């Protein structure tokens, strides 16, 4: 039957329902989705209607230079316009410095304008020179934030009191930070239900960070550097995973593994 369809010249992929074709395109990185316009007239410009965009740069796999990738993305968002987005992902790897991607905050702002629900910023190779988040996260639709290798120390979310405030996202339910720099006095969100800070993220080593998230039902704090944070009241909490390594600033070096306390009544770390 397949041979018969090929012999007759039937274009069965283009005959698929529109929502299914859009779902197929959403599985591709943005540059490959754009190239689908070359398939036939039915596919031309269809990528603009995708509700999910993945901007991916993995070394020289698809683009010769980071500059070429930047030009492609900037051109893409101009052509696409402000159609709504469900998910937006920036996936940058195998790069030397954050200076190679001066438009990351502009791309995040574009996603917010498009009323994105899930925002992923993944900059794995920039650990020594992380992306600095400078755009304010203000959205009435955003529900999920996932950050990898992002610097929040100078973030637009940090106010004069060094508080990382997510009040501009009243529907935010899930927040994940991996290998992020979070040298702030406080993290706050009234709506947040799931929080994960792990994979060598770093807190201030000189003072504790307070976490105010009264709606939390799940929290994970593990494999981080700096002072262990202080968790305020969480009356709805159902599950928690907390791991303090012996080399964390918030962990007493004199801890007795049997009782988890060093026995010194004046020790502030026990």
What does this structure look like?
- It is a single chain.
- The protein is of the alpha/beta class.
- It is 17% helix and 23% strand.
- The protein contains five helices and 16 strands.
- The strands form four sheets. Strands 1-2-3-5-8-11-14-16 form an eight-stranded parallel sheet, with helices on one face.
- α5 links the parallel β2 and β3.
- The longest helix is centred in the N-terminal third of the chain and has 15 residues.
- It is globular.
- The termini are far apart.
Secondary structure layout:
Layout: H1 2-8, H2 18-26, H3 30-35, E1 52-58, H4 66-80, E2 87-93, H5 104-113, E3 118-123, E4 131-132, E5 144-148, E6 150-151, E7 163-165, E8 174-178, E9 181-182, E10 186-188, E11 194-198, E12 202-203, E13 210-212, E14 218-221, E15 230-231, E16 239-242
Parallel strand pairs: 1-2, 2-3, 3-5, 4-6, 5-8, 7-10, 8-11, 9-12, 10-13, 11-14, 13-15, 14-16
